[in-house]
Amino acid sequence: MNRRIGVIGIVIEEPRLVSEKVNAIISQHGDIVLGRMGIPRPEYQVGVVSLIIEGTTDEIGSLTGRLGNIPGVTVKSALTTKTLQKEQDHD
């Protein structure tokens, strides 16, 4: 399977209403998440989450699609244009 690496940006309006759903979906796709940073802004009723991911386009699409279907959640992604291949050790 061809894998790609990239970043997903998630903006959450009214996090107190949907953050449980967002966190559950991210956890269900935890095998493709390399890193996560979340910035709450309760004074504006907004939260921002960035994910560093590595996965197939199907795996990444599943994650972003499910997140994007939550009302008040905006999702954008940027992925490498080429697929990843691990270098083999030469002993």
From TrEMBL:
Superkingdom assignment: Bacteria
Regions annotated as coiled coil: none
SUPFAM superfamilies with a match to the protein in the record: ACT-like (SSF55021)
NCBIfam families, A to Z: hyd_TM1266
Protein name (Swiss-Prot/TrEMBL): Iron-only hydrogenase system regulator
Source taxonomy: Bacteria, Pseudomonadati, Thermodesulfobacteriota, Desulfovibrionia, Desulfovibrionales
